[in-house]
Amino acid sequence: MSEPFLPYGRQSVGGDDLAAVAEVLRGDWLTTGPAVQRFEADLAEHTGGTPAVAVTSGTAALHVAYAAAGVGPGDEVVTSPMTFVATASAAALHGAKVVFADVEPDTGNLDPHAASAAVTSRTKVIAAVDYAGHPAELDELRTVADSAGALLLEDAAHSIGGSWRGRPIGSLADLTTFSFFATKNLTTAEGGAVVSASEQLLERARAFRNHGLVRDRAAQRYPDEGGWHQEVHAFGLNYRLPDVLCALGSSQLRRLAEFKRRRAAIHTRYDKAFADLDGVRTPVTREGADPMWHLYPLRVLGGRRRALFDHLRGHGIGVQVNYIPVYWHPVFEDLGYRRGLCPNAERFYSEQLSLPLFPDLTESDVDRVITSVRSFFGG
């Protein structure tokens, strides 16, 4: 009998999560109610107190954050190509020009020197990505952003619960975005958040996630229309995360430390198992980084990544590649972006393979992955 398929990522939902969701379903609120505010407050406990705005997805968080930053036509956003397409596409949807800067060859994170070389007088935002859960070089990128008069955005879809040089993720950038998709470090099924220490940026984020509606009479252009009156002064969208999913998020946050410990333990087991294996390179951890490992990005050398991918998939192990360089997508190719733009990112992509990593992975599951990888190399 063949072994069951082992995914590379999976949600971890327990009895407390189910009870939290059921409580909301039995109550008066399904959409925007008290569970939203509670979830936002709970998130702030993990971001050094930085306030949060809950939204419907990590992509929505990026779209909202760029809107809060005032990104529009004529502006440029400098970012990494080693990320999911949304980091760039959300800026492009606001009319900005996306400028890709190369990554560090070891972490896959945005290289501050490359970012510095990419900024111009039109740069509005520098958007770093915490690839695989390892924090980007946020201090150096802060210097680059400040010198360019730009905002620093941290796409922390992989890294909630981590820290950089003793400061929690969410407390370092002007704007930080999170994703709570099913495979992420905690889940609301679909969901995300924008956090910022700036009240002005937060207010813009809150407005954009709610169609841009203005209900405060003091801020309305025509406040005497009637008690029902609401206005839109700037366009927004419906990116409200409902109560039922926020309840799940608050419950999940209570297990975030547990999730982090388990992910780190699996990561360490992989590191030790492959340390002596010719043909691969294990992930690095920079001094000062306390990652929240979302992925285990094994580097497969010698052009054998695809063969190992097929080998593991053939054994029922759901490895994945994260990600193709963003500008390789035809939508960016059609805008004039060409391969060869960021050599480090392209080399990283050609070697990267994500092994299964999630809290409910058992020790026997980890053994199975290790055995299958080593057998491919004859180790």
Record keyword descriptors for this entry.
single chain, 379 residues, alpha/beta, Aspartate Aminotransferase, domain 2, Aspartate Aminotransferase, domain 1, seven-stranded mixed beta sheet, three-stranded antiparallel beta sheet, globular, UDP-4-amino-4, 6-dideoxy-N-acetyl-beta-L-altrosamine transaminase, PyrdxlP-dep_Trfase_small, PyrdxlP-dep_Trfase_major, pyridoxal phosphate, PyrdxlP-dep_Trfase
How many domains make up the coordinates?
2
Biggest sheet descriptor? 7 strands, mixed
CATH superfamily of the largest domain: Type I PLP-dependent aspartate aminotransferase-like (Major domain)
| Average pLDDT over all residues | 97
- Report the order of strands and helices: HHEHEHEHEHEEEEEHEEHHEEEHHHEH
What is the 3D shape? globular
Name of the CATH architecture of the largest domain: 3-Layer(aba) Sandwich
- Structural class, from helix and strand content? alpha/beta
- As a percent range, the share of strand residues is 5-15%
Radius of gyration in whole Å, from Cα?
Answer: 21 Å
The number of strands is: 15
User: Which class of the largest domain in CATH terms?
Assistant: Alpha Beta
Report low-confidence residues grouped into runs of 5 or more: none
Distance between the termini: 25 Å
- Trace the largest sheet across and list its strands: 1-9-8-5-4-2-3
Helix content: 25-40%
CATH fold name of the largest domain:
Aspartate Aminotransferase, domain 2
- Count of separate DSSP helical elements: 13
